[in-house]
Amino acid sequence: MTTKRVTLADVARRAGLSSSAASMILNGRPDTRLSQDAHDRVNRAAAELGYRPNVAARSLRVDKTQTIGFISDTVATTRFASGLIKGALAAAEQAEHVILLAETGGDPARETEAIAALLDRQVDGIVFATMRSREVEVPALPGNTRVVLLNALSDRYTTSVLPDEEQGGRAAVALLADARHRDGIVLLGHNAVVERDLFRSTTVARRLAGIRAEMHDRGLSFASEESVWDWVPHNGYALVDALLADGALPRALLCLNDPLAFGAYQALTEHGLRVPDDVSIVSFDNDEIASYLRPGLTTIALPHEEMGARAVELLLDGSATQGEHLVQMPVVVRDSIRRG
User: Beta-carbon neighbour count of residue 251 at 10 Å?
Assistant: First the structure.
């Protein structure tokens, strides 16, 4: 048996007021000129009856649905990037909105279907998010659809939220320089294609640009740059293992992401070397595992939750400026850098 939905008229009847008066009170109208007793009676009646406002009807009146579309490639199913959604959900709740989430796996056909489904539900705007920061192709949407890119860039829609990777790259070098590391610094993970190919990763190129700029400004140079395409632990291990087998002894490793650093730790241990007594390490991303290494890994964090929240705030802010909105990458200091 279904239960009849409690209506505004039911609340007004119990409170002994008109429906219009009850509506003004429940909608928080500041100019109701109704007594405090009337406010108390309406709010009490609504609570007792379990009244919930009819969102669909309100949407028709104000031309807003209080819903936000969130389309991603693999953000929802990737542990590393799930903070983007967590931050977006928190900001949406703060603004009394809900998020309708669609994940496409990077399939253009599924993305087209997701866009159509969200537009059919008259969302107030759409956030397009990617697990890996990169340029994306976003199809043309109806002119009144607000769009924000999260961890991505697009030629068609120019409002985007990105990590400030150049600042992060500079911060990583500064950590080593301030610890008096000037010689024997090895860059782990450099790849010339990655540095140029914005489609593969927009912000990685900026990360490297920041690293190189800070090295130049401090009069430093790398002892070597070890190149690899995939930044996974196995490759971090292989690169450091090969370096040590050749007789090279780096004083510090600047790893372009945490998984490379995880592999580096293992290789150093197998060669009888200790972090940070023999080799200092600094990395990027602040993967959860970084805090469980011993010693803990010093890393430059990706501010995913703050980025997700910022994207929703921009989407709902009618006066927000277009262009890139950069979120600073926090420095997470642990115990992997030895002071000279």
Answer: 17
Instruction: Kindly report whether the peptide bond that precedes residue 295 is cis, defined as omega within 30 degrees of 0.
Output: yes
Backbone φ, ψ for residue 168 (5° rounding): -65, -40
Q: Tell which residue, 306, 297, 312, has the closest CA to residue 329.
A: 306
Residue 223: DSSP 8-state: S
* CA-based R_g, the chain, Å: 26
- 3-state DSSP call for residue 332? strand
Q: What b/e string do you get for 224-233 counting C-beta neighbours within 10 Å, with b at 16 or more?
A: eebebeebeb
- The pLDDT of residue 2 is 46
Amino acid at site 185 = I
CA distance 254 to 222: 10
C-alpha 248/C-alpha 314 separation (Å) is 49
Q: What are phi and psi of 325, to 5 degrees?
A: -115, 110
pLDDT, tens digit, 9 for 90 and up, residues 209-233: 999 999 999 999 999 999 998 899 9
Cis peptide bond prior to 142, omega within 30° of 0 = no
Evaluate whether 252 touches 220 at the Cβ level (below 8 Å).
no
Instruction: Give pLDDT tens digits for 8-26.
Output: 888 889 989 888 888 888 8
